[in-house]
């Protein structure tokens, strides 16, 4: 899979080099390309934004510069993901679907977002005929300073689903937020007693059917206490 990220803060994407993502890249499973949006500006101040038509607070990112950055990336079979708190909510199901893609492009907006004509332009028939699709995506109902952290969240959730990334693929079947929608059961390791707290007896019993039942029950009830 190839992943492109367009941002005015390329350094924000440094974690792509680390841990699981860095290993996936080293193994040739995923290929990251980070692009500095400002390098596409031709004005003296390298401005990427301007005041909104119709008035209002904040600044809007210029369509011209986004067009220059995105045009070369819009090859056949590409999913363009525009990060915005107003987008469709990202979840495990979307991660699963996007993990089947061959090319993802993340457009990280800042300020009040990207001029909507960028979304409109890449959503036209001219692009869909080349299997280029556009999605506005949010990682949750809160407002971040920009799409960079959101793109990191999505890239990590998607990349770990790619074949060969996890050492033990079984962990994909059992883990939290799996297809059944249940949160995973609580886990314990050695020692059997830590600070007077004992591991649940059943887990030491060797009775796998009962353990599975206990875990299913615990998983169902987990995460129900709201903040
Ligand atoms: N940009 C700002 N807030 C965001 C969010 N919650 N999700 C995606 N992109 C964003």
Description:
The chain has 227 residues and is an alpha/beta fold. The chain is built from 8 helices and 9 strands. The strands form 3 sheets. The chain has a 5-stranded parallel sheet with strand order 2-1-6-5-7, covered by helices on one side. The chain has a two-stranded antiparallel ribbon with strand order 3-4. The longest helix has 14 residues, at 208-221. The protein is elongated. The model has no long low-confidence stretch (mean pLDDT 94). Residues 83-85, 138-140, 142-144, 146-147, 150 line the site of adenine.
Topology of this protein?
Elements (H helix, E strand, L loop, with lengths): L1 E6 L11 H8 L4 E6 L12 E2 L9 E2 L1 H8 L7 E12 L2 H7 L4 E6 L8 H6 L2 H4 L3 E7 L9 H12 L10 H5 L18 E2 L2 E2 L9 H14 L6
Parallel strand pairs: 1-2, 1-6, 5-6, 5-7
Antiparallel strand pairs: 3-4, 8-9
Task: Sum up the overall morphology in one term.
Answer: elongated
Q: Distance between termini?
A: 38 Å
For the CA atoms, what is the radius of gyration? 22 Å
Side by side, the strands of the main sheet go 2-1-6-5-7
User: How confident is the prediction overall: mean pLDDT?
Assistant: 94
| E-strand count | 9
Strand content: 15-25%
Q: Which keywords apply here?
A:
single chain; 227 residues; alpha/beta; five-stranded parallel sheet; two-stranded antiparallel sheet; 8 helices; binds adenine
């Amino acid at each position: 899979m190839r992943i492109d990220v367009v941002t005015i803060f390329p350094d924000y994407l440094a974690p792509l080099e680390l841990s699981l993502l860095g290993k996936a890249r080293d193994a040739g499973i995923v290929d990251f390309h980070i692009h500095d949006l400002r390098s596409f500006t031709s004005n003296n101040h390298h401005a990427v934004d301007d005041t909104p038509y119709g008035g209002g607070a904040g600044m809007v990112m210029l369509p011209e510069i986004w067009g220059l950055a995105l045009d070369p990336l819009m090859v056949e079979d590409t999913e363009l993901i525009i990060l915005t708190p107003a987008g469709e909510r990202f979840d495990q199901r979307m991660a699963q679907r996007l993990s089947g893609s061959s090319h993802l492009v993340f457009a990280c907006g800042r300020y009040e977002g990207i001029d909507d004509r960028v979304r409109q332009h890449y959503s036209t028939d001219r692009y869909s005929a080349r299997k280029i699709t556009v999605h506005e995506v949010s990682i949750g109902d809160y407002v971040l300073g920009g799409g960079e952290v959101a793109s990191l969240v999505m890239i990590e959730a998607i990349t770990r689903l790619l074949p060969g990334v996890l050492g033990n693929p079984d962990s994909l079947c059992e883990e939290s937020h799996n297809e059944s929608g249940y949160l995973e059961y609580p886990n314990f390791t050695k020692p059997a007693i830590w600070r007077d707290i004992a591991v649940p007896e059943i887990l030491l019993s060797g009775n796998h059917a009962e353990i599975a039942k206990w875990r299913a029950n615990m998983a169902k009830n987990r995460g129900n206490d709201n903040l």
